User: Fold this.
Amino acid sequence: MSDHALSSAPGSARARIPSVPGVAVALVGLSVLFAVASPGFLTAGNLSNILVQSVILLLLALPMTLIIMTEGLDLSMGAVLTLASLVLALIVVATQSLMLGLAGALCVGLAFGLTNGWLVASLGIPPFVATLGTLGAAQGLALIVSDGQSVVGIPRFVRLVYSGEVAGIPNPILIGAGFYALFHVLLYHTRFGTYICALGGNREALTLAGVKWKRLLISVYMLGGAMAGVAALLMTARMNAGHPTAAIGMEFDAIAAVALGGTSFEKGNGWIFGTLMGVLTVGVLRNGLNLMAVPSSVQVACIGVLVIFALFLDGMRSKKS
Amino acid sequence: MRAVMATTPRLELAAPPAVPGTPILELKGISKTFPGVKALDDVSFAVWPGEVHMLLGENGAGKSSLMKVLCGAYQADAGEYFHNGEKVEIRSPADARRFGIAVIFQEFSLVPYLDVAQNIFLGREFPSRIPGLLDRRRLYREAQKVLDLIGLEVDPRTKVHQLGVAQQQMVEIGKALSQDARILVMDEPTAALSDRETERLFEVMRQLQAKGVALVYISHRMAEVFALGDRITVLRDGKLVGRALPGETSPDELVRMMVGRNVDMSYPRRFATEPGEVVLETKGLSSSNGIRDIDLKVRAGEIVGLCGLVGSGRTEVARAIFGADAVTAGEVRIFGKQRTGGPDAAAFAGVGLIPESRKAEGLALIRTVSDNLAVAGLPKLFPNMMFSPGKARRSAQELIQRLRIATPSPNQSVAVLSGGNQQKVVIGKWLAAGTRLFIFDEPTRGIDVGAKSEIFALIDQLVAEGAAVLMISSEQAEIVHVCDRAYVMRGKRIVGELGRADLSEENIVRMGMHDE
Assistant:
């Protein structure tokens, strides 16, 4: 049996780390590249900037990891984030209450998550198609509620959510770190996390174990919607406005970050730390290219190339083992 | 595999009580119907504490359905359950678990990217003192106990996908054992195990028996039936056909009970008298998919059967011949020439594979009858790479008439055709390609009785016109009915050849099982 012996260190999260994943190569490689190419890259201010700017993407990529682990997908996240951000802005401007605004954004997110989950789990519509449909719905609603205009006049206390800091650490970093820890615990230390793995790996096993997996699958999509609501708060605070096209296409970056991080689209093989590295890689790439004044359209292409490169590395490695 | 046979450990099992008391579980008059199939028909079944109850039957006899009814995965349409003499309901896997029923499935119910411990306790996680979280230390401690019990030496933190098949089977066994089952159902648990693991499993079974656990054991190995069984139940076509005690029956009698399925085939075959040239020959063929040392021959004008139990390697032989799996030793000769390259080369050389899953592998469901009929013959119909719709349609119309495919038009989508007509489209597709050697994998699966004899008539017509046919079937009666000769497989090898005179269901089953 020794041929199946593992190099894993018992009891640590390290047991899940494959030997030098492609995303780590990409992250370190890009950082070195930009540090050499651009003098402004390796400064404390810029590094902190990368972290702060990565948080919104992280908030989407964390639930996206879980959704992809169930062999699912959520294409509606960017559009739902946009709609939630508009709803939040409208409520806050009208009522001057951050709590009411956040509640509104969360409701929008949960409603879309519930719809996505119901379409996928109960009606059996393929996730790609189901969430493509809700993407359209959310985008349309965003234009309707805003009348195509930006919502301005966001109060200062909302802006402080993004620009403020506690003990010298910017708020977004604290929020990102908090949610990262939450998702880590959720995936590796709760029943819910175990079942997410099984949802993608072997649904029959869950049925035979007496687990009602449809509700579970719906709640995974609802978690995605709720996180889009949380991200909407940061997005509104950052832009100081609600904008009807604010986060269009952000699901692409989120899926790219998850795929970069080594989460597979099959069999419930996922890795939450990999997603964090994937998000940072996308952040580093965008930041570095900005410093080098590369246009945004070219940046999107670069992310695509990077994803293919990282998956190629992972594919090579899994073939070898 | 014969060597494995010889070393199958014989056990000194405690004798069951001469007059057993109340059965721990009794099913009465269980029926279960799926669209078009009566999977279980008025089956009654009882198991007593501390005994090993052997469940026998051919492929498709209803053993697996009965097992799924037992564990609550299927709900019976009719019938009653009694637990220790009391009438109960089993409507879900949770109900079954409450009565102490655990099942070791043959097709794995493991989650590949969870570790061994998480799989063993899936659905029964240990909560920690902090609400909502899991007690991981306890999980691994309990899992280690289970692994020690079954003698599996792996780290409980190993992800299941990293284990070999035998180890996965042992995890599956551990998972069932950890449920403190009073009734343990096992579906061919030794199929994937080595001798050492088999021995270990039998030892665990003996311990469980001593504790009064009732064991239901599905097996295809005659030696196990007699070495382990205290009681034997035989199923056929979803019906209970016999009960026996091992001391009062013989392997021959059990085989006779298992065979004799009713196959209504009105079409009489004209058997070949003078087979033609050798169309297909394999010598010492081994493939990346596990088959070893396959020697077989198929001549023009002949229908040759390839039988054996599910998993004995029949489909793998077809794949190797067709070039879908890599040949690791030996050779495949088609019309005397060694086959090289992949399926495209095989198709060009005149080999057509009619796969088991028509819908997944044989047809493009959303395309039209005409498109499907043309797809394999493209290189032959259109040698200069230019597609001509008119020519494709004419070719399709000719085939529709010749094969009597019931379709309103060549432009009908194949998805709406009946199973029998879909099968004809797959055959027609290869006819258009000029195929001379047809390999059929379960040609009548999911086809109703009337269409079956039509398919056989078609196959007979093919060989009458000089084609050669290799036919894989789990329906022994069909093999006996239509084949000129048959090869019997077991454990990825050919273990015997039966000529027309010896071709009987008894002989096929006897060769396919571990019966001396």
In short: Residues 1-17 of chain A have pLDDT under 50 and may be disordered. The two ends of chain A are 17 Å apart (CA to CA). The beta strands of chain A are 165-166, 169-170. The interface with chain B takes residues 1, 4-6, 8, 10-11, 15, 185, 189-191, 194, 197-198, 200-202, 204-211, 267-270 of chain A (CB under 8 Å).
